[in-house]
Amino acid sequence: MVDAYGKENHPMRTALPSTILAAACLAPATAQTTPIIPVQPLVAAQASAEPAKTLAVGDKAPAIKVGTWVKGEPVTTFEDGKVYVMEFWATWCGPCIRGIPHLTELQKDYQDKGVTIVGTAIWQREATQEDRVATVANFVKQQGDKMDYTIAVDDDRSMSESWMMPAGRNGIPSAFIVGKGGTVEWIGHPATMDEPLEKIVDGSWDRVAFAKAEADRARQQQEINRVMAMLRSADTAEKRMEAMKGLNGLIEKMPDNDDMKMVKYDYLLEHMSVASAVKFGNELAKANWDDQMMLNSLSWMMVINDKIDDQGKDFALRLAQRADVLTDHADPMVLDTVARCWFVKGDVQKAIEIQRKAIELADEDMAGQLKSSLKEYEEAQDKI
């Protein structure tokens, strides 16, 4: 997910969700991965003396007040008996762009079932509304049939301020499913909405149960945020140990929450020692030996750390190679990690060979990122 300023975390790079990363600020910055940074300023909400409006599951959907309709039939109101997916994105948002085929496929699957998907571009960076519309229109035109659902452009943040901000959504892409009666039935990341959408359409959706689960999640998130604040502010060894005690307590309460375990791994690596991170990382790897995403994340976070030692290098390579096997040597992001491991171990030629293979397998956007690492390796080789 990307925030209003364009920072994202690639899912193959870290297993930490955006909610935790935003609180923890622990993710490493790399060519492929940069940490999520502060959200779109809540100027309108904070400037008013009136109570801040909220938007939650079960509430009536806000009005549709877009600036310009770019593609598809304009949607001015929510018709009874129909379902609407209100998705928010931007032309500069990598995860949004990668999610376009999914939304197109969903619209195709549900086109005869009364479902309309509306993608509204928000937080565009152009100076004027005219330029924002032109940028979005040009992008949509270039996408062609690959972006085959209704598209609009926000009108000076009207939609973001009436939908995103009241719902506490600080990153894009984000989606809201409006049910047949005009009520918000679900809020979340569009990549996870397939099951809710299916149930909302067929009438089997349990909105009350979902709302309760979301309330429980919110309470849990408050506890997570408290511990993350402790981790961020710990500026002495004593405070770091106290923060780690709080983090261990969270892990005990949430034994199945791998995200918190990844926070601990990252904190050990950044603020304790490579040895302690390797020890805990081995425990995570053993428990997740068939999870290529987890293994690749552990490896990458280790291999880009400037304090890495020989023990850390061996650990990172072992996990990256396992992830490579699990992905049949065909995942460019995993291969990118393997290449980096060989590079830090001193086998530059091997790193170059593997990085070139990663680039061959990557799509155009990803290849551009991977090429920067290849250039680094080739320049290093020239100096040998």
Summarize the SSE layout with pairings:
Blueprint: E1 2-3, H1 18-24, H2 43-47, E2 66-71, E3 83-89, H3 94-98, H4 100-110, E4 115-121, H5 129-143, E5 150-154, H6 158-164, E6 171-172, E7 174-178, E8 184-188, H7 194-202, H8 207-233, H9 237-253, H10 258-272, H11 274-287, H12 292-303, H13 310-326, H14 332-344, H15 348-361, H16 364-382
Parallel strand pairs: 3-4, 4-5
Antiparallel strand pairs: 1-6, 2-5, 3-7, 7-8
Summarize the structure in words.
The protein has 384 residues and is of the alpha/beta class. The chain folds into two domains: 40-205, 3-Layer(aba) Sandwich (Glutaredoxin); 273-382, Serine Threonine Protein Phosphatase 5, Tetratricopeptide repeat (Alpha Horseshoe). Helix content is 54%, strand content 10%. It is built from 16 helices and eight strands. The protein has helices spanning 18-24, 43-47, 94-98, 100-110, 129-143, 158-164, 194-202, 207-233, 237-253, 258-272, 274-287, 292-303, 310-326, 332-344, 348-361, 364-382; strands spanning 2-3, 66-71, 83-89, 115-121, 150-154, 171-172, 174-178, 184-188. The protein has a six-stranded mixed sheet with strand order 2-5-4-3-7-8. Strands 1-6 form a two-stranded antiparallel ribbon. It is globular and about 65 Å long. Residues 7-12 and 14-51 have low confidence and may be disordered.
